[in-house]
Design goal:
Shape: globular
Number of strands: 5
Bound molecules: zinc ion
Distance between the termini: 45 Å
Strand order of the largest sheet: 2-1-3-4-5
Structural class: alpha/beta
Strand content: 15-25%
Number of helices: 5
Radius of gyration: 18 Å
Length: 168
């Protein structure tokens, strides 16, 4: 493993934080999300969940991963969000042009094994259909025995227009 301690990007990020910390007072924010909302969304760089939903610091839990999938780890975060921090509503957001549509698990897996000489049991969960995938995630959340029966919404973010479309 190589450690890149001071890339240009890292230095930029630290400098931005100096500016950020100088102008914000976070001391009044309570720990539980003010809007009692948890959002599960794809990590896509074009989807800024806070901007798209008009959320401010302290408003919501935002759980993100490649594809916005209700993986065991996302479920773990949702359970903590509900049980310990009182959220009462869930929004799942996927989006057009998702990178998860562009590859197959098998190909990435064999490429990595070839490149590294190491095999790891890791699923990437690529999927071929956006809406079907979103419905699958909603089903998984709604039917999970440890997730509370709360309003759970599915939204498709159109990166081309910035609009959200409901997926039921
Ligand atoms: Zn995506």
């Amino acid at each position: 493993m190589t450690i890149q301690s001071h890339t240009t990007e890292y230095a930029r990020a630290l400098a931005e934080n100096e500016r950020y910390a100088a102008q914000i007072d976070r001391s009044v924010l309570p720990l539980p999300p003010g809007r009692k909302l948890a959002v599960l969304a794809c990590m896509d760089a074009r989807l800024t969940v806070e901007d798209v939903l008009g959320l401010r610091t302290g408003d919501a839990h935002i759980i993100r991963n490649a594809g916005g999938l209700a993986t065991d780890d996302a479920i773990r975060s949702l359970v903590i969000s509900q049980q310990l921090l009182g959220t009462e509503e869930i929004i799942v957001i996927e989006h057009t042009g998702c990178g998860m549509l562009t590859f197959h698990d098998d190909a990435v897996h064999s490429d990595l094994v070839e490149r590294t000489g190491q095999d790891v049991d890791l699923a990437f969960h690529a999927f071929p259909d956006l809406e079907e995938n979103l419905r699958l995630q909603l089903d998984r959340i709604r039917s999970h025995p440890w997730i509370k029966d709360v309003p759970t919404h599915g939204l498709m973010f159109e990166v081309e227009s910035g609009r959200l479309r409901e997926v039921l």
